[in-house]
TrEMBL record:
Belongs to the LysR transcriptional regulatory family. Residues 1-59 form the HTH lysR-type domain. It comes from Saccharophagus degradans. GO terms for cellular component: cytoplasm. It is found in: Cytoplasm. This is HTH-type transcriptional regulator MetR. Pfam families: HTH_1, LysR_substrate. GO terms for molecular function: DNA-binding transcription factor activity; transcription cis-regulatory region binding. The keyword Transcription applies. One of its GO terms (biological process) is methionine biosynthetic process. CDD domains: PBP2_MetR. InterPro entries: LysR_HTH_N, LysR_subst-bd, MetR_PBP2, WH-like_DNA-bd_sf, WH_DNA-bd_sf. Keywords: Activator, Amino-acid biosynthesis, Cytoplasm, DNA-binding, Methionine biosynthesis, Repressor, Transcription, Transcription regulation.
């Protein structure tokens, strides 16, 4: 029953001190303002003000409505501001899903400038090792999926952002480190350290071992790159990482990168998003920033 206009009238009356001045402030005629409040009073069965000569005195009900106006109107004005920001693409939430687990460090080079440019956009990164990216996009649980395996769906678009080569990472003091490339059979006597995901999402299996019908001696799953590299450095096994990460970590760990097969295993990192979201400015900006890294 209470409308926003009623609250505006009460606040204007309090600040301006008269019906005429309040009506001018609200761009209303004095009769329209009085009619609006009289209609509200009739519906509620209360009196909000009484005239005392040329002045108005608020009743207890009027004082209560004025307090409500002073509390509620700033909140409603904030809602207006936020909704305009959503409509103009300045405000929103960007949820990123990570399927390429070693690519987190690359992502941080994109996130930092993005957050500076879009202070009103909330950002979250979801990194789960058993993450169903396609379902998450379709169910609007995430807005962009970071993956090296693009998905064929008419409602999705793909933005390639990074080309890389997958390398075998070995301890620098081992015979494998002296090779320029390895064959799949070279891993038959090796412990292969991987992230804890199914083999269908591990490129070393799908693009290298499975086509050659080769099994490693043992597969050992760990969740972090740092632990993985500590194990490799201690000659407890081998792992695979993108070439740019190998180059970075070689400065901190005694490791070497070896090509998988003579031609190597080459991959592309994609950002996958819903086509309908392409109208959002902050999503377009994130895609543009990522493609330049």
């Amino acid at each position: 029953m209470i409308e926003r206009q009623h609250l505006l009238v009460m606040r204007a009356l309090d600040s301006e001190g008269s019906l005429a001045a309040a009506a001018d402030t609200l761009n209303l005629t004095q009769s329209a303002l009085s009619h609006s409040i009289k209609k509200l009073e009739d519906r509620l069965g209360v009196t909000l003000w009484q005239k005392q000569g040329r002045k108005l005195r608020l009743t207890q009900a009027g004082e209560y409505l004025l307090r409500a106006a002073n509390n509620l109107l700033p909140q409603l004005e904030q809602v207006d501001t936020m909704l305009r920001a959503f409509g103009e693409g300045r405000k929103g939430q960007l949820r990123l899903g990570m399927e390429c687990h070693p690519c987190y460090e690359w992502l941080m080079t994109v996130v930092a400038p993005f957050l500076t440019r879009w202070p009103d956009v909330d950002l979250d990164v979801i990194q789960q090792f058993r993450f169903d990216g396609l379902a998450a996009l379709r169910e609007h649980k995430i807005d962009i999926l970071i993956t090296s395996d693009p998905m064929d769906a008419p409602e999705l678009a793909h933005c390639p952002v990074l080309n890389y080569e997958l390398l075998l990472v070995v301890a620098a003091n081992t015979p494998l480190a002296k090779l320029t490339s390895i064959n799949a059979g070279d891993l038959q006597q090796q412990t292969l350290i991987t992230f804890p995901v199914e083999r269908a999402r591990l490129d070393v299996f799908t693009h290298f071992l499975i086509p050659a019908a080769i099994e490693p001696k043992r597969q050992h799953a760990v969740e972090t790159i740092e632990v993985m590299l500590q194990l490799v450095s201690s000659n407890r096994g081998v792992c695979t990482l993108p070439n740019w990460l190998v180059e970075k970590y070689q400065h901190h760990h005694p490791i070497s990168g070896v090509r998988l097969g003579q031609g190597g295993v080459h991959k592309t990192l994609y950002l996958v998003y819903r086509r309908d979201d392409s109208k959002l400015d902050y999503i377009n900006d994130f895609l543009t920033t990522a493609s330049k890294r």
